[in-house]
Amino acid sequence: xxxxxxxxxxxxxxxxxxDGNPVRLSVNPRARRISIRIDARQGEAVLVAPSERRxxxxxxxxxxxxxxxxxxLSHRAERSPLEPGQILDLFGRPTxxxxxxxxxxxxxxxxxxxxxxVSGGTGEAYVRRVLTLLKREARQxxxxxxxxxxxxxxxRPVKVSIGDPKxxxxxxxxxxxxxxxxxxxxxxPPEVIDYLAAHEVAHLVHxxxxxxxxxxxxxxxxDHRPYRAWLREHGPALHGVxxx
Length: 244
Description:
By secondary structure, the protein is of the alpha/beta class. The protein is 37% helix and 24% strand. 27% of the residues are buried.
């Protein structure tokens, strides 16, 4: 007798508590395997599967990693609004936010205590001006470091854009030669920023994360593990910046 194939109990985009941890199910047809990532801004784990039929496998896998998920979610940083008096790291250096006169644009300067960002405006207007400056600084340094690594590999130019993805620090599309970065990495130390640029440029050579790919990254920046560890540890804090 003909039997209908079993259907999954889960669906793309579904949210559910899993062993006390908030998780969201996500289908990505380009994914080669089941994986788990932490969405620091939403405070949840994201279970990624290549198809909806494999979401039940993703849930089963996540159950074996419940302690790890709980530990990573516990590191979620408190939200840090962008307002006068706050201190954020810019290129790894503590930088004070200061109120400026009127509606002047945000600018990066220094005083005897160190770097500071001075901006006019109040409330949302102040936040917009500071974000504009941070994104501009991010674009400038990431474009420069991207070009350094392109030259090192003999690669043609790419289009670089700056955004604010929820979890990724960068992404590369080799087919149309575009690289997209999170502006938030501008708050990381320079060597971490440089690693991120190398990480994405290396995808122009190898689109996967195979040993051959990591060999290219190693050629560009040496041992990448400390930089990846820094992003894992401090990423939640970076994602908390700019939230009310």
